[in-house]
Amino acid sequence: MADPQQQRIDTLEAELAALRAEMQDFSYTVSHDLRASLRHILSYAQLVQEDAGPLLPDETRGFLDTISDSARHMGLLMDGLMELSRLGSVALHIEAVPLDALLRDVAHELALQHPQRSLQWQIADALPAVQADAALLRKALYCVLENAVKFTAQRPTALIAIATDAAGAPGMVTLTVQDNGAGFNPALQAGLFHPFKRLHTTKQFAGIGMGLALTRKILQRLDGRVDAQGVPEAGCTITLTLPGTATPP
Q1: What's the whole-model pTM score?
Q2: Which residue among 4, 55, 57, 107 is the one 20 to 30 A from 20 at the CA level?
Q3: Coil, helix or strand for 176?
Q4: Burial environment of residue 145 by CB neighbours within 10 A (0 to 12, 13 to 18, 19 or more)
Q5: Exposure of 221 by Cβ count < 10 A (0-12 exposed, 13-18 middle, 19+ buried)?
Q6: Do 214 and 164 share a structural domain?
């Protein structure tokens, strides 16, 4: 007689394999079929601008600029979708990952990318290690710290404080990233981690609204979670919760 538990496992594995195949089909469609059409739109708009631009009225040239800008923005949206979709199927390599070295490496990279900014990093001493995939965790931390840098752009000096919360759940490490930036309206918090969800206009801050969606997806795969608290014009606090090294992966 077949083992009901094994049958259930086999069924779940088959469903997972089907979902992965469906995701691969989606990724192929986005990376090939849709991108080919997008490249045609952008290329022909540029050709018209080059060949007939001087002969066209200012308003028509503005239309062509809008087409080109929209095509480039759509390309960025596709890149974001592709990255989000890949996170669900990438193989995990769980190990003990020291937070201190990883955070300082990401902070250093961001400082090099923004040499004109005054960035003040306050990273707590003796940060613990966590059980995680180092590459995925680095991506999540980069998204969170990049947001902190971005949303403090209107401050003379960006203050970004990183620490752990000793009051977290047993066996888990709670990491907080607090900034003195633009913050956000708490009433809009529900959509904060959704793809392309923005709580500020593109004129205020650049980007496509994918960073926290990627962070949430990564933390879910690492058996953790991410939360956010903010106050308009009074900064934002992102909280990452991850298994500690005493917790089996």
Answers
A1: 0.76
A2: 4
A3: strand
A4: buried
A5: middle
A6: yes
